[in-house]
Amino acid sequence: MRVTHVVDLSHPVGPQTQVYPGDPVPSLTPVATLADDGYNLAHVSMGTQSGTHADAPFHFFDAGARIDELALDLFVGPAVVIDVSGRRDRSSIDWADISAQATGVGPGKVVLLRTGWARHYGKPRYFDHPYLSGEAAARLVAAGVRTIGIDAPNPDETPREGTAGGDWPVHRTVLGAGGVLIENLRGLEEIDFPDPLFSAVPVRLAGADGAPVRAMAMRVRP
Ligand SMILES: [Zn+2]
To answer: Distance from the CA of 31 to the center of ligand 1, in angstroms?
Structure first.
């Protein structure tokens, strides 16, 4: 088996990272330098869900699994990329919009929603992304899917500034089934080969609700 191509699906993490409203802004501060100490080392400060990251069930459920307790097979697997690009701001992606492309979904498959919204990353419009309907999420979970990724900040509609927002049906459905969500992906349009192998393994932060991932899609040849 050979990996012949790897697509980087993660945004860089640093002060420029566009964070969800209210989340801490990441920073990296040198605590040792080559000149003074003989090596470089930095202090990292960031939220558990800054940049490209995974949500654990604990994010929405007190009794839900924490990120360090989850089996790694949730984060690695063959991906089904569903193209929902070209949609209007804040439009709902319903089962009828994706069912024709979702024929290959099932247990062990990773569903990647390609909205194209990563091109708005860094701008306010990034939060006006299309979102998956609760009904579509329920259909995917019923088919056995436990891992859903999106190239947007949120698979649910992000509340408009100053509003309480909705009831987070995608988060509740997927995390409630013991699944995980991968948010803030980039580069899904660069997956131009069949049968990509997806990997987005989280840092094993003890007891955390989520953790940063280095997400990638691999072309694998036998
Ligand atoms: Zn999240």
So the answer is: 29
